[in-house]
Amino acid sequence: MKHAIVVGSGAGGATAAKELQGKFAVTVLEAGTEFRPLSLGLPGIERMKKAGLLFDERELHLIFPTVQIRKTPEMVLANGIGLGGTTTICTGNAVRMDRDLKALGINLDAEFEEIYQEIPVTTVHQKRWHKHTRRLFEICHEMNLDPQPMPKLGNYENCISCGRCVLGCTHGAKWDSRQFLQVAVERGAEVMTNCKVERVVIENGRATGVEARRGWMRQFYPADLVILAAGGFATPVILQDSGIRCEPRLFVDPVLCVATAWAGAQQCQEIEMPFVVQREHFILSPYFDYVSFPFNKTWKYPAKDTLGIMIKLADSTTGSISNKEVKKALTAEDKHRLGQGVELCKEIFRRFGAKEDSIFLGTINAGHPGGTLPLTEQEAESFHHDRLPRNLYVADATLIPQSLGNPPILTIIAIAKRISKVCAQEMHAEG
Ligand SMILES: Cc1cc2nc3c(=O)[nH]c(=O)nc-3n(C[C@H](O)[C@H](O)[C@H](O)COP(=O)(O)OP(=O)(O)OC[C@H]3O[C@@H](n4cnc5c(N)ncnc54)[C@H](O)[C@@H]3O)c2cc1C
Ligand code: SF4
After folding, report:
1. Which ligand sits closest to the CA of 160?
2. Which ligand is nearest to the CA of 276?
3. Distance CA 24, CA 4 (A)
4. Nearest CA to ligand 2 atom 3
5. Is 163 in the pocket of ligand 2 (CB under 6 A)?
6. Among 156, 158, 162, which is best to mutate for testing ligand 2, by the most ligand atoms less than 8 A from CB?
7. pTM as predicted
């Protein structure tokens, strides 16, 4: 049987591994290790904050090794490293976001249908919302913002509203891509952790395998087929280090939280992002911000008395990433749209009863990177860029042409499913 290497075990990688195992002998190469939820509780975080021990967001990685932090002058960029990738620290949102792909002539209906058969998607959490969440929902409704309960991936009958979704769910409620990885392993796939792929080795126009670091050792892993799914930050670096050009079109979906002091808000013990308001260039969703709360000096109220709403922006595609640095700045238009979101949040809080001087802003942070090898009409059928060797595919958010300003996991899974079908056919046809 031919051998496929899948790089990364997040949304794209775990899907590709599950779909391809059996058609190929799959090995997943994963830079990180087993996922461990953060055990430190909020009281511990608050004590560290009071003691002045938390001053730079990059410390998050020390406390919670799954989270990898990069910084630009304007924002904090986060992604997950380890089995399950960023899906282990996601908030479980399940939104189909393939409008831009449809416009290119890409129809992923069949793939989404498969996903809904495989992963439960539910809004059952609504019955456990706290009274402040219910009130925010009502206010958004009164303001004709058409709030909708957020569809979530997983079995939310098990959810206990602990509010720790981004720190890892320990109650078996939230789905993450380790479930797909498990299926792949049961079908015979091999998973190697602590194996950081540095480049694809290309000879005579074909990928012959990948070079990766395991501890101090650098090793060559041969393959007939290579699928890169190391995420929107890492895949372009691997491509560029393999001599394949990417586009300076990085988007990240920046998040800005607007918060207010509210005694007994207890949002830190509420499911994260329980409902969503969709606007043209951003979404709003109630959110306790684990980036701003520990590190942003203006977040001075106790966690239990802090109530926040996230603005998640569909940003311009104006960034780039290499193995040396990430460049990502907000354009004037991005800032203008974020400003519109802030005004809307302030109006929601005013109606809620918050005082103007008790409203404050968070640190801009982002965790939906992609866009540096965007699909165009030309690749609508093949899902394969001309600049890649025939037997090298990308199966993650790197292919998404525009910022979604929305949760991307479902769409990435659908893309990875289609790519798995396409490359299996292609390789079969090649004999
Ligand atoms: C806090 C947070 C909450 C989020 N919540 C949601 C949500 O609720 N719903 C939603 O749809 N989206 C959410 N997202 C975004 C979503 O999790 C990611 O967009 C998605 O997981 C990306 O999938 P991916 O396969 O492209 O990359 P990832 O899931 O990031 O997976 C990449 C994998 O590659 C591995 N890797 C990286 N470099 C290498 C290398 N060199 N060699 C080998 N392996 C490597 C990583 O360890 C990782 O396992 C959230 C993001 C964050 C940061
Ligand atoms: S609120 Fe807690 S139990 Fe519910 S999904 Fe999030 S982490 Fe899991």
Report:
1. 2
2. 1
3. 6
4. 159
5. yes
6. 162
7. 0.97
What is the pLDDT at residue 431? 67
Give the chain's residues under pLDDT 50.
none
Query: Which stretches of 323-404 are assigned E, i.e. beta strand?
Result: 326-327, 359-361, 365-366, 392-394
User: What's the rounded Cα separation, in Å, for the pair 20 and 4?
Assistant: 8
Any idea which ligand is nearest the CA of 404? Answer: 1
pLDDT value at position 424?
86
What per-residue string of b and e applies to 152-178 under the rule 16 or more CB within 10 Å gives b?
bbbbbeebebbbbbbbbbeeebbbbbb
- CA distances 354 to 28, 135, 392, Å, are 50, 13, 54
**What pLDDT, on a 0 to 100 scale, did the predictor assign at position 92?**
98
Pocket lining: 361 vs ligand 2, CB cutoff 6 Å: no
Predicted pLDDT at 35: 97
For ligand 1, whether the C-beta of 80 sits within 6 Å is yes
Cβ of 154 less than 6 Å from ligand 1:
no
3 state SS of 169: coil
